[in-house]
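Researcher: Quick test of sequence recovery. Tokens follow.
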């Protein structure tokens, strides 16, 4: 990739899916022009997506994600990688300067969706960039012990659910012109909806019989 230095390695995996895992690190040279990097990086993501590879990529990308709303280049870049299933794990400032506002220049990307994944930022002053870490669980799951979670509808009451949902959404105004960020409004709606749904139809582990049904082909 032009304008940057990078290193990628492929790690053999013994997990159940058999997917290979790519680990990469990138340093993008400071530059206001990111179109060439964006094109090269999205092409790389498309290749790994077509090969069904898991990946973890980190580094100093020198693109401030805090400018998502005000810089069209940042907006296009974030939307492009999200459209390819690439998740950015860091959402806190990673660089501090006496002459500039805190910024988020150091990124961690992955397409691994796992509830056990955790991210950390180390408060260490060796430089003006703060180290970032991500912990992934690579222990393979035994298929016979796999039990999906399903909604428990035993005590679900639709009128009560709708009443609580209406009360919770009372202060969420979708037509407020002062709210210029529709993404925040939608995220708040999803958060409220899921919280109410969890109260009325909590998740539970499927029984053995229900688990077996997940692996049977269904005919339309």
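Model:
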């Amino acid at each position: 990739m032009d304008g940057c230095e990078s290193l990628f390695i492929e790690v053999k995996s013994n997990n159940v899916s058999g997917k290979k895992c790519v680990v990469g690190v990138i340093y993008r040279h400071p530059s206001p022009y990111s179109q060439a990097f964006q094109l090269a990086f999205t092409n790389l993501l498309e290749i790994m997506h077509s090969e069904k590879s898991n990946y973890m990529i980190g580094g100093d990308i020198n693109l401030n994600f805090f400018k998502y709303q005000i810089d069209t280049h940042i907006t296009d870049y974030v939307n492009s990688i999200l459209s390819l299933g690439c998740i950015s794990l860091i959402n806190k400032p990673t660089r501090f300067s006496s002459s500039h506002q805190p910024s988020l220049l150091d990124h961690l990307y992955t397409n691994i969706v796992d509830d056990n994944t955790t991210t950390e930022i180390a408060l260490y002053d060796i430089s003006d960039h703060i180290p970032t870490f991500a912990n992934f669980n690579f222990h393979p799951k035994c298929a016979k012990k796999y039990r999906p979670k399903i909604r428990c509808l035993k005590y679900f009451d639709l009128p009560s659910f709708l009443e609580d949902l209406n009360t919770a959404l009372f202060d969420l105004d979708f037509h407020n012109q002062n709210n210029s960020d529709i993404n925040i409004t939608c995220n708040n709606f999803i958060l409220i909806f899921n919280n109410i749904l969890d109260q009325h139809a909590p998740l539970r582990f499927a029984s053995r019989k229900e688990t077996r049904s997940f692996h049977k082909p269904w005919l339309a």
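Confidence is low (pLDDT under 50) at residues 215-220.
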